[in-house]
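Hey, I was hoping to borrow your eyes for a little while. No rush at all, and the record is pasted right below:
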Amino acid sequence: MKEIKCECGHVNPLGTVLCESCGKPIAENQHIDGNEGKKLLNMRYDGTARRSKTFNKSFIDRVWSFFSSVKVGVLLIILAMIASMIGTIFPQEMYIPPSASLAGAIALAIGIGIQNLPEGVAVSMPLFRDGMSRKKSFLYGQFSGMVEPISAIIGVLAVAFVEPLLPYALSFAAGAMIFVVVEEVIPGSQEEGNKDLASMSLMIGFTVMMILDVALG
């Protein structure tokens, strides 16, 4: 069987379009034995973008692959978010007090601050792992949180007009967070063989959340 050698030196099977090592396109007439090969037409399409076919995927490639694959997964995501939203409508509605208090505001701020720590790490760590410097990874993680105070200001200004929709808006946000954690964060935390540590960290975080919920009312 003839083989194709890429410019990077990796030997690929005949018919390979993108190098399995570097992901670059391979010339169709480039063979390891030096013979000119026949031009092959690749009529296959699996519904994903060309960039997502690289072998060594970076963080950007994985994000690109996630958003460029428009298959049944999009429908499943929407259905899962709707189901999570419905499951949290009534709990969210119960925790909207008729009159806000300083203690409630402090408890809410502490809870949001604690959950923002792993959220920022989830942005910065993949960037650092894929070769970005510590400083840039940290800054990008901080920039990802800039939308929150801006959105909070918009929410404060609009709360008087959309108060009847607050239970549904909060439940949708909670459902989206639950889906992202179950779909991406938990599996990603166990990829490198740290299953016990990841599971214990999840339980500790849940325990802290329950303590804050009971202690701060």
About this structure: The chain has seven helices and two strands. The chain has a mean pLDDT of 68. Helices lie at 59-68, 72-94, 102-129, 134-143, 147-158, 166-189, 195-215. The CA atoms of residues 16 and 99 lie 65 Å apart.
